[in-house]
């Protein structure tokens, strides 16, 4: 007798034959004027230096989140690069980090797999017909759409539209739909190079894809080799890929070893840092490192000997990670780069100042300053806030959240500021209320939301009486139909449904709209409006 299987059961059977691929999808590859500790360098003379030409899985004592994008997908899987699957990856990881930070029940791997299965089943039903339509259009010679955003790698459509490394020079207006420059950056998974830093002790921050990660360049070792580091204010360990780490990264991955650094001293102390199913095994080591023109001799960092595919995949665009949370969060017990710079008298204060760039702005203004705040980036005064976290995160009191002029009930809480996270995670009730206040917004029933790509609604956050408003473009995570960038978009605000009344997690979607600074000596956070 013939057995008829439903599409969902067939899907389960297929997934059962390729657990490694599924794990890869699930776990792919972060009031008043401020007082002296945050004084602007415009009023402080710093020694001149030569200036150079960052979803969530946490280890027990350290957090890290990798921007999720089509880095290492199996080209035989038609859904491996689907943006809805990427959204679910972001939601899964962000929920886990949100739960860890707020001491809420942490989603299990089984729960996250179930969420991916549910999302994948929906994509099979809703998206595949769209893909077939796009294929038919392509066969008919229609090349006017941006359908490559949904194409799989083997279609050879991704990257058809090339961008210069410096990006577009034209600002894309708000309310005109999902920015085409962001869509193109996502298609190619390109890196938008950093601009020139505006002051000493500063490095530019390159932008990964459509603002999903931020990279800084450092130099390590006796040969002064260049390494690209993911900047993460939500973790405190700094490590790079080791030359003995077999199968770690593609041909473009820079690795550290005795062959390119005679000053490298690898120790016997070995640590394994686990991030969900992803992990790295590393040895503690010392070597020289130059950060924003400042050289540290014998800096303690990690050199990996083994990386799971979530870190060592061939398409991962960075060579290591720079953790800039409080040093108390470090798994290896070592000091963060800024604390080491301060202890070595390279900087006057252990301050880090961030400005995160936005591809849609047309020029990348992103940069990171070590030891001071760049006053030229701030409009008015930087606002001083006491850190609420006892565990090394950067967390502030949140007074209120508004959509336009409408206050969101129950939004008074705390918020963790994390450069390594792309999305905003809100408690379920507040996430629902935000989208209820946006015309045309809907819940997808899985922690995500959709809203019109043309929305002009702005989300604002008030901390200790100071309000910061998000650009409406930053509410848009991706278009749901790449043929219509003025249609429906996926929201950058997701719900944390872990129970309780946990705080908020504010990632790059918010942080692109402010100047963000941290001071590990005074345990304070600075926020300012951008110039």
From TrEMBL:
Entries under Gene3D superfamilies matching the protein: Acid Proteases (2.40.70.10)
Keywords of the record: Aspartyl protease, Cell membrane, Glycoprotein, Hydrolase, Lipoprotein, Membrane, Protease, Signal
One Pfam family cited in the UniProt record for this chain: Asp
Biased segments, Polar residues type: 187-202
Top-level taxon in the UniProt lineage: Eukaryota
Active-site residues annotated for this sequence: 232, 418
BP-aspect Gene Ontology terms: proteolysis
Keyword flag Lyase: no
Gene Ontology CC: plasma membrane
Signal sequence, start to end: 1-35
InterPro entries attached to this UniProt entry: Aspartic_peptidase_A1, Aspartic_peptidase_AS, Pepsin-like_dom, PEPTIDASE_A1, Peptidase_aspartic_dom_sf
Protein family: Belongs to the peptidase A1 family.
Protein's UniProt name: Peptidase A1 domain-containing protein
């Amino acid at each position: 007798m013939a057995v008829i299987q439903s599409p969902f059961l067939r899907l389960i059977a297929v997934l059962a034959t390729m657990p490694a691929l599924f794990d890869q999808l699930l776990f792919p590859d972060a009031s008043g004027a401020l007082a002296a500790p945050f004084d602007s360098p415009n009023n402080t003379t710093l020694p001149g230096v030569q200036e150079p030409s960052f979803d969530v899985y946490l280890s027990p004592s350290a957090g890290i989140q990798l921007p999720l994008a089509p880095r290492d997908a199996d080209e035989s899987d038609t859904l491996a690069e689907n943006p809805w699957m990427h959204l679910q990856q972001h939601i899964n990881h962000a929920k886990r980090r949100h739960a860890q930070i707020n001491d809420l029940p942490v989603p299990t791997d089984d729960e996250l797999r179930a969420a991916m299965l549910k999302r994948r089943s929906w994509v099979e039903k809703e998206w595949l017909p769209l893909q077939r339509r796009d294929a038919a259009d392509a066969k008919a010679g229609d090349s006017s759409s941006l359908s490559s955003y949904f194409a799989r790698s083997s279609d050879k459509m991704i990257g058809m539209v090339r961008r210069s490394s410096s990006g577009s020079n034209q600002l894309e207006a708000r309310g005109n739909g999902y920015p085409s420059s962001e869509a193109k950056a996502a298609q190619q998974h390109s890196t938008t190079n950093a601009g020139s830093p505006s002051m000493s002790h500063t490095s530019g921050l390159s932008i990964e894809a459509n603002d999903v990660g931020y990279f800084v360049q450092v130099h390590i070792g006796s040969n002064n080799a260049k390494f690209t580091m993911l900047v993460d204010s939500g973790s405190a360990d700094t490590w790079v890929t080791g030359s003995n780490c077999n199968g770690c990264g593609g041909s473009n991955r820079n690795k550290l070893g005795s062959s390119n650094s005679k000053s490298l001293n690898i120790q016997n102390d070995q640590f394994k840092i686990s991030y969900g199913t992803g992990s790295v095994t590393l040895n503690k080591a010392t070597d020289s490192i130059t950060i924003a023109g400042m050289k540290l001799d014998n800096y303690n960092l990690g050199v990996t000997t083994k990386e799971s595919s979530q870190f060592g995949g061939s398409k991962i665009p960075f060579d290591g990670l720079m953790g800039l949370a409080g040093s108390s969060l470090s798994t290896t017990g070592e000091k963060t780069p800024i604390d080491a710079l301060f202890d070595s008298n390279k900087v006057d204060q252990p301050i880090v100042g961030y400005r995160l760039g936005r591809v849609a702005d047309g020029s990348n203004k992103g940069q990171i300053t070590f030891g001071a705040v760049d006053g030229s980036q701030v409009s008015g005064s930087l606002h001083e806030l006491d850190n609420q976290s006892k565990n090394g995160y950067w967390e502030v009191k949140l007074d209120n959240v508004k959509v336009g002029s409408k206050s969101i009930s129950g939004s008074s809480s705390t918020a963790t500021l994390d450069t390594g996270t792309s999305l905003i995670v809100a408690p379920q009730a507040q996430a629902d209320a935000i989208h209820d206040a946006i015309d045309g917004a809907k819940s997808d029933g899985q922690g995500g939301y959709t809203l019109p790509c043309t929305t002009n609604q702005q989300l604002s956050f008030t901390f200790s009486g100071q309000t910061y408003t998000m650009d409406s473009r930053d509410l848009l995570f991706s278009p749901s139909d790449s043929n219509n960038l003025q249609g429906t978009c996926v929201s950058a605000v997701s719900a944390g449904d872990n129970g309780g009344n946990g705080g908020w997690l504010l990632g790059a979607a918010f942080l692109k709209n402010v100047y963000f600074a941290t001071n590990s000596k005074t345990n304070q956070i600075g926020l300012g409006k951008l110039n």
